[in-house]
Amino acid sequence: GQLLLNVADPGSFELFVIASVLVSLSLVPMALSEASAPPIHRPEPLPFRTLWATVPTGIITMFFSGVAAGAMFAMGSVYASDIGMTTAQISLFFSAALVGSVLFQVPIGSLSDRVPRRGVIFVVALVATVASFAGLSTSVGWPALVVMFAIGSTSFPLYSLAIAYTNDWIEPGQRVGASALLVMVSGVGAVVGPLAAALLMSAFGASAFFWSLVFAHGLIAVYLGYRIIARDPVPVDE
Prior knowledge:
The chain is mainly α. It is built from ten helices and no strands. It has helices at 14-26, 28-32, 48-54, 56-82, 87-112, 117-134, 142-155, 157-169, 175-204, 208-230. Helix 3 (48-54) crosses helix 4 and helix 4 (56-82) packs antiparallel against helix 5 (87-112). The longest helix has 30 residues, at 175-204. It is globular.
């Protein structure tokens, strides 16, 4: 999707048409499938207050991962344009982050199934914080791509880790309700992230884009560090 920026003028309508056609085509294999839909079960309702009382770590991680993702997608192109990147360079700038996300989702997720998941979230958030901080001293070229690869490799898996960690603490019948709440929390974060990043960039310049990512990931790491000290984890074999 990012690389399609090089196919047509981003200021015209062609790219929106291409995206729309691709989304429509993605439904064709499902429409031709002979598999029947699974039975619909009424999910067990789960109030937000109950989820917060049970697993605040999952909610905090999900919120700030939404903040980071929202800031990256909404303001990353503004940052890249401000420092002089061309359209082709901007597409590579974002593609680097998404390639990192694809490559590291499975190994990070697999690791979190074998060792305490909170520790994995803490380390992943900490690495994302350091990578975001490194972005403050990068410029156009390979350094920027390496930084975005590192951020994508660690930032985007936090969403999945938050879901997995939440499911560790709730009953199976509550998972649908919990997922709905987590998506909402992530959405709120994705609204807050671009607004915060835009305000910071307006006040302190383009480099504040990376400061917004430092704060979002850093707050996850700080909170996880506190929770690791304050409360025992669910045993790994559970």
